UniProtKB/TrEMBL annotation:
<dbReference type="InterPro" id="IPR013083">
    <property type="entry name" value="Znf_RING/FYVE/PHD"/>
</dbReference>
<dbReference type="InterPro" id="IPR052608">
    <property type="entry name" value="U-box_domain_protein"/>
</dbReference>
<dbReference type="GO" id="GO:0016567">
    <property type="term" value="P:protein ubiquitination"/>
</dbReference>
<dbReference type="InterPro" id="IPR000225">
    <property type="entry name" value="Armadillo"/>
</dbReference>
<protein>
    <recommendedName>
        <fullName>RING-type E3 ubiquitin transferase</fullName>
        <ecNumber>2.3.2.27</ecNumber>
    </recommendedName>
</protein>
<keyword id="KW-0175">Coiled coil</keyword>
<dbReference type="InterPro" id="IPR016024">
    <property type="entry name" value="ARM-type_fold"/>
</dbReference>
<dbReference type="InterPro" id="IPR011989">
    <property type="entry name" value="ARM-like"/>
</dbReference>
<dbReference type="InterPro" id="IPR003613">
    <property type="entry name" value="Ubox_domain"/>
</dbReference>
<feature type="coiled-coil region">
    <location>
        <begin position="192"/>
        <end position="222"/>
    </location>
</feature>
<feature type="domain" description="U-box">
    <location>
        <begin position="262"/>
        <end position="335"/>
    </location>
</feature>
<dbReference type="GO" id="GO:0061630">
    <property type="term" value="F:ubiquitin protein ligase activity"/>
</dbReference>
<dbReference type="Pfam" id="PF04564">
    <property type="entry name" value="U-box"/>
</dbReference>
<dbReference type="InterPro" id="IPR045210">
    <property type="entry name" value="RING-Ubox_PUB"/>
</dbReference>
<comment type="pathway">
    <text>Protein modification; protein ubiquitination.</text>
</comment>
Length: 1046
């Protein structure tokens, strides 16, 4: 896995675990609950894991390494299981959580072990040492850490184990003691109403669990309920006096909180098990809900649902029963609304919650009930309840939404009570509350007077726009409706734009009056917009409007429009619209930029826009037609006019963008050279404290032009060599390259590139650089970790490595470690660096033979001296610092690696370097040939014969011919080389003998060997070869090395 992927992996999991921490803690908010202790401890471990993953994200971002095994899914699998585990305990009562503590403890232990194992699987990756230590610490915490429980908690936990509970229930004393401990842990009295309510909630949870989790869990809860009931009765009163148990608790122990006005059994449909709305009687005399029995008959049944065979399927309305049900509902409604009103005024959270739910149910059952509820004055208390009880807001908002639907009077009462401001404050809070708040605001915003209040609420527009990107589509869609309903004042539109909702701003910019257009342009000019917001603004109409404003006579309007374009043209989409507008943007912007009448600030902004456009379009110019003429016009205007420094830096940035563009580089270079750009750039290379970016861009342009115009660039600099080269070197002196910002690094790279691009054979340049004391300046860049700086430094030093250079220059460089530095540079990821390193090593290696110190016997006792190790290639004492020996520098393996990588120019340079190891100036070619062959170089050379450039093929043929003079390599590689050499001999050039440096005698000798082998191949070949002269021709036109191999 790459570092960037590892970064995203760790970041995503960090956020996921961080969300689980509060979820785990909030399963039980009662600190007295044993479940709270267990889960809070586990939440602490999860918090440590979230922090660890966040640090792993930073570590991966800071390092470039191969991260293995991260996406094995182990952590993700455990987190998914944990999320499901926590969800199963959400909104459960305290007693239910307590009863499940043994299961919770086991599951937490399982998750802890699994998460520890998952961390173990990612420790094998390329993390930093510090990070690996952190991972190990968190892993150890999951393995060994456990919650701190006191003796009572341990006793309760052990007693609640399923295998222990039966024996506890059977033992009255133990049962009473355990129930008392449970009540004390919650700080409740067994005879209190609160404990009775807890029992009621537990029974409700038991029914839910029975439906969801099956009988096993339900049976355990039934046993736990039996324990509690038995313990309560035994503790409060003796068994003979159970009737004296307080009424709330006794009712809870005997029945299920039956509704105050329970419907008669005859009101209940046997099919739906619900109170009937339209009862009908069938032939059997039984009464059913009309819709239910019609569906029964439609399915083909001819028997009564209760089993009786029917003579017919006719049915008739049971009017009497329907009237009775209606009367019951009326009486029941009165009782229900009275109870709801009383509960609403209660101080108990549970009573208030029941009231809200009951009022909502009544409205859902019959829409006219909302008028009755409003007439009893319950709307204002509901709004106040939402203000006071945050935990009830979601349910209150849901009830208010039903009460407000299609009821303007109810809406007005709610708004008068301050509902809008409460709804706005609830945005971006809990997701459930936020959803209900948005739905209610969407309903209210349809009335202009209410939408005005919404827009005036502090922070409302900003919060609403933020919710536009909510993951919940229902919230996002509702917010769009609200924003469309809000008053479209300039102030509101600006607030929306500040929250990156740009559509209203674009509409106002295009369709608004002069003052509105100016306000919108100013907003665009000062707003920090992400790319997505700029894309929303990028329409033909909006860009055309801004270009029209640029041509205005009003200076404020003109400057605001240009500054808006400065912001927007940082993305290509806008630049394309500027270039392809009805009146192309450059036709409007460039004349104003060239005008000395315009203010410096405006010209600077105009230049900034043009630089953005030129840079953005450089890779794919639009419009494509007349491209050359357009670029020619821009270059000529930019070079012919005087610009203030604030604008000049942007002009140069635009020209640099054209020079780097895939679609514009050739044209821009041609135009710049034709307009004498190199000469014009030289004064800009001087230090400019007012606008340093002028020099930074100028030096980069000069470097780019000098790469393909080396002689011209050298000629310009040599006009005043001392001053010009000193200026370039001043950019490199007294700077710590490891600590500079990116712009300074770019400047240093460009300065080094100019030096590297100077013609190597130009002695005046070399002399000028030496006089400017160039080499010490270059030395400080050799240990840079910046790839481009290393590359250009290697190129700049290359001229000083030539064997024909100044006396002792090679030795001085070698003593400074330059040879080994070039050897290390062969491992660079940049092909140009590898090529330059190989060429420098070629230069050094050409001098190795003459600088090698020969070992000669001296004196009578020379035979008693210890053996002195000599270089087999140079037959003398070799050191990297004294004679630059490639063998001593261990340069052959990296040179062969360069050839294997396949970059044409770098491979060509590397082969040329290897040829110096078998050069005619050496005592023998054999040691060098052995060194290359034993380093497994022959297969790489064979590959060059098939894929290399013409020059590299010719040198590879020559090098192979020399190596294959040795019989062991002919035998080992001959068959592999044959077909490749045939191809080279048929399609290659005739420069092999020139490159080899052979004299006529050597070639004739090779021809004689070839002739002998050719004649062995048969009469036809012998006749064709004929004489030695013909053999030479045959050598050049057919199988050069193939025959030699044979």
């Amino acid at each position: 896995m790459e570092a960037m992927t590892a970064n995203r992996w760790a970041g995503s999991l960090s956020q996921r675990v961080a969300k689980l921490v509060p979820t785990t803690r909030n399963v039980s908010i009662e600190k007295e609950n044993l479940a709270h202790t267990l889960l809070t401890h586990f939440a602490t471990l999860l918090d440590a894991l979230a922090l660890l993953l966040k640090d792993m994200q930073r570590d991966a971002d800071a390092r470039s390494a191969d991260y293995k095994n991260l996406q094995n899914g182990k952590l993700e699998e455990q987190l998914e299981g944990l999320e499901n585990f926590l969800e199963s305990y959400r909104d459960k009562c305290n007693l239910y959580l307590l009863s499940n503590c043994p299961q919770i403890r086991k599951r937490v232990q399982i998750f802890s072990r699994a998460l520890s194992e998952a961390l173990e699987s990612v420790m094998q990756n390329s993390w930093s040492t510090e990070m690996q230590l952190r991972i190990a610490q968190v892993k150890e915490a999951f393995e060994s850490s456990s919650p701190k429980l006191d003796a009572k908690q341990h006793a309760i936990l052990d007693s609640l184990e399923p295998e222990m509970l039966d024996s506890v229930v059977a033992d009255s004393a133990r049962c009473t003691k355990l129930v008392q401990q449970i009540a004390e842990s919650f700080e409740l009295k067994l005879d209190s109403d609160q404990f009775a309510k807890e029992l009621s909630k537990l029974k409700e949870d038991k029914e839910t669990v029975e439906n969801a989790k099956g009988k096993a869990q339900a049976l355990y809860l039934e046993q736990f309920l039996t324990l509690l009931e038995k313990g309560v009765v035994a503790k409060i009163k003796p068994a003979s006096e159970v009737g004296a148990v307080p009424m709330p608790l006794r009712r809870e122990l005997t029945m299920r909180n039956a509704p105050l006005n329970t419907p008669l059994q005859s009101f209940i449909c046997p099919i739906t098990r619900d109170v009937m709305r339209d009862p009908v009687q069938i032939a059997s005399g039984q009464t059913f809900e009309r819709e239910a029995i019609e569906r029964w008959f439609a399915e083909g049944h001819t028997r009564c649902p209760l089993g009786v065979e029917l003579k017919s399927t006719k049915m008739k309305s049971n009017i009497a029963l329907r009237q009775s049900i209606a009367e019951w509902k009326d009486r029941n409604f009165t009782i229900r609304i009275q109870d709801a009103e009383a509960n609403l005024q209660s101080t108990s959270f549970e009573d208030q919650e029941k009231a809200v739910q009951e009022l909502q149910r009544m409205c859902e059952e019959y829409s006219m009930n909302k008028y009755t509820i409003a007439s009893r004055g319950l709307l204002r208390p509901l709004v106040r309840l939402a203000e006071e009880q945050r935990d009830l807001r979601t349910k209150v908002f849901a009830a208010l939404r039903i009460l407000a639907e299609d009821n303007v009077e109810n809406q007005e009462v709610m708004v008068e009570e301050g509902l809008i401001y409460l709804l706005v404050r609830s945005l971006a809070r809990k997701p459930e509350a936020s959803l209900q708040a948005v739905l209610l605001l969407s309903m209210l915003s349809k009335r202009p007077s209410f939408s005005e209040k919404i827009s005036n609420a502090h922070g409302a527009v900003l919060l609403l726009v933020t919710e536009l990107h909510n993951e919940n589509e229902e919230i996002a869609e509702s917010v769009k409706i609200i924003l469309e309903n809000l008053p479209t004042s300039d102030e509101n539109i600006v607030v929306m734009a500040e929250a990156n909702f740009m559509k209203p701003l674009v509409t106002r910019l295009v369709e608004g009056g002069p003052s509105s257009r100016l306000a919108m342009a100013k907003t665009l000019a000062t707003l920090e917009m992400p790319e997505e917001s700029k894309k929303q603004v990028a329409t033909e109409e909006s860009i055309s409007t801004l270009l029209e404003m640029v041509q205005s006579n009003d200076e404020e309007e003109k400057l605001s429009a240009v500054e808006a374009l400065v912001q927007l043209t940082t993305i290509r989409q806008v630049c394309v619209l500027v270039a392809t507008a009805k009146t192309p943007g450059p036709n409007i912007l460039v004349p104003l930029l060239s005008s000395a009448k315009e203010s410096v600030g405006l010209r600077s902004a105009l230049a900034n826009v043009m630089a953005n456009v030129m840079t953005s379009l450089a890779d794919q110019w639009v419009p494509a037609e007349d491209k050359e003429e357009q670029i020619h016009t821009l270059v000529c205007k930019f070079l012919s006019f005087f610009f203030p420094p604030q604008a000049q830096c942007h002009v140069l940035r635009g020209l640099l963008g054209l020079l780097k563009g895939k679609d514009t580089a050739d044209i821009a270079e041609k135009m710049l050279m034709e307009n004498n750009a190199l000469t014009l750039l030289v004064p800009m290379l001087k230090t400019n404290a007012v606008e340093p970016t002028i020099r930074q861009h100028a030096v980069q342009i000069f470097a780019a032009l000098s790469e393909t115009n080396r002689e011209a660039a050298a000629a310009v600099l040599l006009n005043d060599a001392r001053a010009n080269f000193s200026t370039i070197l001043s950019m490199l002196r007294d700077r710590n390259v490891r600590m500079e910002d990116s712009k300074t690094v770019q400047e240093q790279v460009a300065a080094l590139a100019i030096l590297a691009n100077m013609p190597l054979e130009n002695d005046l340049v070399t002399l000028s650089l030496l006089q400017a004391d160039c080499i010490p300046v270059l030395f400080k860049y050799l240990d840079s970790r910046q790839g481009p700086i290393q590359d250009e430094a290697a190129g700049a030093l290359l001229r000083f490595t030539a064997p024909t250079g100044p006396k002792d220059m090679q030795l001085n460089l070698a003593e400074q470690g330059v040879v080994q530095w070039y050897v290390n540079l062969l491992n660079s990821s940049r092909s140009s660096s590898r090529e330059r390193a190989a060429r420098a090593l070629t230069n050094f290696s050409k001098s190795s033979a003459k600088l090698s110190v020969a070992v000669t016997p001296s004196g009578f006792f020379h035979c008693f001296r210890p053996n002195i190790s000599t270089c087999p290639i140079h037959k003398g004492i070799c050191r990297v610092e004294s004679n630059f020996c490639l063998k001593e520098a261990d340069a052959v393996p990296p040179l062969l690696a360069v050839i294997k990588d396949g970059d044409p120019l770098a491979a060509e340079a590397a082969i040329e370097t290897l040829l110096t190891l078998v050069d005619d100036d050496l005592p023998s070619y054999e040691p060098g040939a052995h060194l290359i062959a034993k380093s497994k170089g022959v297969p790489m050379l064979i590959n060059v014969l098939n894929n290399g450039t013409t020059a590299s093929q010719e040198m590879a043929v020559l090098l192979c011919e020399i190596i294959f003079r040795l019989p062991e390599y002919r035998a080992q590689y001959g068959s592999a080389l044959q077909m490749h050499v045939i191809t080279v001999a048929q399609k290659g050039s005739k420069k092999a003998k020139q490159l080899a440096g052979k004299d006529t005698r050597d070639l004739d000798s090779a021809a004689e060997r070839i002739l002998t082998v050719v004649k062995r191949k048969g009469p036809e070949n012998a006749q064709r070869a004929g004489t030695r002269a013909n053999a030479i021709d045959y050598l050049e036109t057919q199988v050069l090395v193939d025959v030699a191999i044979c």
